[in-house]
Design brief:
The protein has 147 residues and is mostly helical. The protein is built from five helices and no strands. Helix 2 crosses helix 3. The relative contact order is 0.11. The mean pLDDT is 84.
């Protein structure tokens, strides 16, 4: 009920995905919450999908990237990037790692539109331009370089 109420008032990224019950909040000697004594949440409860293993090489590479970025042990092809703890900064890193490992350039908005490995792999194989930006190389220039 609390989560439903929060979803009606807040954007999805601000609604907690995991809840931990405590008998009492751990406090410091000053009466503030002692964040160091709070228990770590069980991250295996983040995904709302049943685990389905990667089915091809691209899904396997994407799953490896997601595990590294999200620091989780297992990622299924139907797991949602944002439900597993992803956010806009990690989405930016995800685009960079896809460029590095798969040699495919995609805009960051595609991570938000295709938040599962299955959707993203289908998009990359059918819709994506599969264009990689040229590498930036240094060169010697004589004189002034105009802005």
């Amino acid at each position: 009920a609390v989560q439903t109420h929060l979803r009606s008032k807040l954007p999805d990224y601000m609604v907690p995905q995991l809840w931990v019950s405590l008998d009492a909040m751990p406090l410091t000697s000053n009466g503030k919450i002692d964040k160091k004594k709070l228990p770590d949440p069980d991250m295996s409860l983040l995904s709302t999908q049943e685990y389905v293993a990667p089915r091809n090489e691209v899904e396997e590479k994407l799953a490896t990237i997601w595990k590294e970025l999200l620091e989780v042990d297992q990622v299924g092809v139907y797991d949602n990037f944002f439900e597993l703890g992803g956010h806009s900064l990690l989405a930016t890193r995800l685009v960079s790692l896809i460029r590095r490992d798969l040699k495919i350039e995609i805009p960051i908005k595609d991570i938000f539109v295709h938040p599962t490995i299955s959707d993203l792999e289908f998009y990359l194989s059918t819709e994506s331009q599969n264009v990689v930006l040229p590498a930036i190389v240094s060169s010697d220039h004589q004189g002034r370089i105009p802005l």
